[in-house]
Amino acid sequence: MGLFSFFTKEHKEDLDKGLEKTKEGFFAKLTKAVAGKSKIDEEVLDNLEEALISSDVGLQTTIKIIKRIEERAAKDKFVTTAEMNKLIKEEIERILAENKNEDQESFDTPAGVKPYVIMVVGVNGVGKTTTIGKLSHQFKKAGKKVLLGAADTFRAAAIDQLEVWAKRADVGIVKSQMNADPASVAFQAVERGVAVAADVVIIDTAGRLHNRIDLMNELTKIRRVMQKVVPDAPHEVLLVLDGSTGQNAVEQAKQFTAATQVTALAITKLDGTAKGGVVLGISDQFNIPVKYIGVGEQIDKLQVFNKKLFVESLFKGA
Length: 318
What we know:
alpha/beta; eight-stranded mixed beta sheet; 13 helices; 8 strands
């Protein structure tokens, strides 16, 4: 399936709309940075730095981008505004490419892996359960048999919410009572997934534990019991982060990457924020690929992350 056959006009419009607030803030500053300039000088770099930081790209990644632009500009000092925008765009895409971000084309799972087990982690309130629901919908739409495991047993509301999403997405769910052993629920979900020949099993986990040691122990236990059924489970550990929280999302990523091996990121709520640059900063700082982005509240507004289209949308009109 070709890139542009999966990413329909509607997909691209959703992405453009989802990044609207980020583009408004970023481009107001970017335009100011390069307006009337025929070369990239210190003033341009200072203004560009401000534009990147205010979009929550983060200091570390901003410094890296500025340094690279400065090095390239030194080789070709006199450029047009369009050429400056192209140079900046290329460096942002390059950062994403270096951090394992692949240009994904569809909601799919690796051939020969069944069930494909995804353990979803993240603090309460970031859109974790909602993301699981939307992900289930997209996998189901792609022809996959999906089963959910409600292993966030610390809150009755978490179990109830996941059940609502399971019904909405028309997928199966394995659940227990509040305060049941999360690892036991995860075990049962994977066991059921094997029994019913599910293509994908998605395990929800607790969003808040007392400290990092508790978190690490709980996630390690869940991983260990799932491996009794599927030896290489989980195949993916998906960390869900709220893009609208900017640098707070970076702090959450620090906690979860210290507690468990995170293999992919889902950045939610990009449509409601001007801090979309956090996608770039988090991916770069932790060297973990962004796999999914949320660009709207509706069930079909979760997209696979495609760095090429993301950067093109970010620079649309530049």
